[in-house]
Amino acid sequence: MPSLLNPLGCALAAAILVTGGGIPTARAETSAAANASVLTLPEVLELAGSASPNIDAADAGVRAADAARRIAGLRPNPSLNTDIENVGGSRAYNEIEVPKQTVSIGVPVELGGKRSARIAVADAQGNRAQIERIAAGSDLMFVVTQAYVEAVAADRRLTTARDQAAIAAEAVRAAHVRVVAGRASPLEEQRAEVLRISADAAVDRAGRLADLARANLGRRIGRPVTNALDQAWFDRIGTYGPQSTQSGSSLAVAAARASEDAAEAQLRLARAQRLPDVTVTAGVRRVPISNGVAAVLGISVPLPLFNSGASSVAQASAERDRATALRRATELDTEQEIEQARADLANAIDFVVFICLDGNRRASSGRLSARQNVSNHGGSGPLCDIDLTWGPESEGAYSRTLESGRVLRRSTM
């Protein structure tokens, strides 16, 4: 059985009880499907990972960040210039000067540490992309696991509903025998028939919900779910869940810190861009009249008369302050979420312990009493109306425990 001291184990224990504690029925189903192809949770997670658009988007983000890092490390391309002077003009000028050809190469020189600042920005953005990739995988794991658990629970609820329908059919037959023997009123047979119709309708509803749960799981893995599900997987759960509840280790805080680092790098880049880059040129000039050549050297310096870069620095500084404030807010919110999730998880575990201790006893006792009531009284006693699924309490425990464990796990990853 899963340990009640870890969040997902408790969630899955409660998920088993969503079906009304029908352990004998579940074991019978597992034995019947032992020779069939079983779709396990690891296989589902693998299929979902290859079919998830969120994972594809996160992987594309990582590739884009890697490409941006390579681009940030590149230096400016040189330029090749070719000039021809003294082309055309008046007749007198043509007699004095002849066309001159100049070929030169211009090399931009970055000043102020612009390249290292660009690399720092790209590194911070790459870290953020990696964090988002991990977060996407974590979210997918929880969503797919929940869909898998819901599909298994829906199958078990369907089995329980069929058991109820069988009991109701037995009640109708027993009531009919009592009516024929003159030991009961025809109203009792009619009442048993109404209960049988209600049980058959419950089977139809449970069947539709089971089909819906499998369809939802199939959407996650990209193919229809026609295989049997691994019912015995719940009994093999080991310890699972967050081992640390420090807010500094959460993905949300890590993402906020990556954003702060990126904003700090952007501020550094904005300051570096205030220093203009220069372009150094070197070339040769050929004078056709004497067939001689001469070296040509030059330097180009932009004049920051209209745009000195002060506004860009102010903008980057404000963005850095904003990222810092958001990081502090994220830390506070995460700490609050962790404490709230821990309290909710403790409360949910207490309720799951109660279900684990009492659920199977109540469900088994209910089935036995209902069958005895049908056999002995022809469905006329109050126990014929027992709800063997015991759904609302176990469903609520499952939902609260799984959600609390998910929040705590997500907040402390």
TrEMBL record:
Record-linked Pfam families? OEP
InterPro entries reported in the protein's UniProt record: MdtP/NodT-like, OMP_efflux
Q: Where are the transmembrane segments?
A: none
GO molecular function annotations of the record: efflux transmembrane transporter activity
What family is this protein classified in? Belongs to the outer membrane factor (OMF) (TC 1.B.17) family.
Report what the protein is called.
TolC family protein
